[in-house]
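Follow-up to my earlier ticket, as requested here are the two runs.
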Amino acid sequence: MREIALMAAVMMVATSALAQSAAEKSGVNTLVGVPPKTEDFVKEVSMSDMFEVESSKIAAERAAGPTKTFAEQMVQDHQKTTTELKQLIDGGKVKAAPATAMSEDQQETLNELKGLQGDEFNEQYRDDQVEAHEDAVDVFKRYAEEGDNPDLKAWAGKTLPALEHHLQMARDLAK
């Protein structure tokens, strides 16, 4: 199975930019450690930030204690990364457009979260945060190590420790 996945990854990497995006979206690039293209990275980061901010705003209203504190920090921190990414783009250092909306999966997850209350809401929010931060750490790490835009690569490396900390905080909440 692993050989098939590796062969598919090699074929996708060797073909067009669309295939590169498909490889990123499907997780094949993660499997083989291929960095995302700049355009894919910008889209992934911007969609991730939108999801983090929107889901955490809901959690800040509905949750209490450590989950509420975590949610408030996620809103603040992910608004900051959104602003930083926008500055890189607006300053001409990055030639890529951010996403204008969340992915269908993210929107579905957010809609499901909106329908929950109490313990069910808290549990789902925490699980969603672990998954979202695992994905974010993965894409930031791969771009920071081998991304093709030096300014964006430096920003990814600078931002990665905060995302790793978010992931640990989310895992701690889920315990």
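Run two:
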Amino acid sequence: MTTLDDLPIRDDLRGRSPYGAPQLDVPVRLNTNENSYPVPEPVVEAIGKAVAAELRDLNRYPDRDAVALRADLAAYLGHGLTVDHVWAANGSNEIQQQLLQAFGGPGRTALGFTPAYSMHPLLALGSGTGWVAADRDADFGLTAADAVAQVRRHRPDVVFLCSPNNPTGTALDPSVVAAVLDEAPGMVVVDEAYAEFARPGTVSALAVLPGHPRLVVTRTMSKAFGFAGGRLGYLAADPAVVAAVQLVRLPYHLSALTQAAARAALAHRDALLGTVTAIMEQRDRIVAELRARGHRVADSDANFVLFAVDGDQGAAWRTLLDAGVLVRDVGLPGWLRVTAGTPAETDAFLSAMEKLS
């Protein structure tokens, strides 16, 4: 049987593992930060009609630049953004890959403050961009002074900031973004995949886009919109950034069906985003209950919670799995991450956690 070692694969890819999380058949799956609530039936019908309207013309290529979809996304974001400020792709992962293709690449470096989203270094690897794993403090926090010091030391071409951060869940203080923008020699990408779940008063980096042509804010419809299967991510930035990523995007990268489904979802955003408050309530319930039981828990502005366990987190993960609850082992010694879902899923998780006492 042929293996990767038998193929002329790139040396820097040898021994690597693809990104992924276990997809196991268990009663309660809370490991991938999906929205636990199904798409409401009226929205299902609207998306179905929108997709059906495209079927007869599938012999033709879709709108290569997805202009109508980008206009809808700009209207959703507000902040005075227009179609020229927005770009869309198959998930925010593809958006970030395109950014690294345009602004990273061989001989250039990207920097992220770990622990953070584990796809960022993999995207850097795939685009031939060097990766620098900068540090957070012992409580996973990041101050403006620490961030600036590390950017100054490494002088990266691309800086990734996650707000809220995955896997810790905490949003950045706006001063961190401002300080990094002032210091970074290249692009600053603020990954806001979970922004809709942020606690009241949290400031989005969208507010400081004007006057900062090297700032990019990436978002996704996978989480708050419950559109993970639709695969739609997007960025907001100066129009020059949108022009730059168009140099590296694949032709017709967004299918007509994806564009139609996403536009229908955006048109019904009030119904889809109606689950956000319910999910935030479950997140806060998990935080409060685990802290009451004596667990260390990271503050969360996302739809998940990072919590500490005694001893080996792998053994704790297995104990929860044996109880029918799948959470995520993100590789942080002594910590696990759980997605906030429905009240019933929270009940099951908290009940399973009693087995760790």
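The only thing I checked on run two: Residues 71 and 83 are 5 Å apart (CA to CA). Let me know what else you need.
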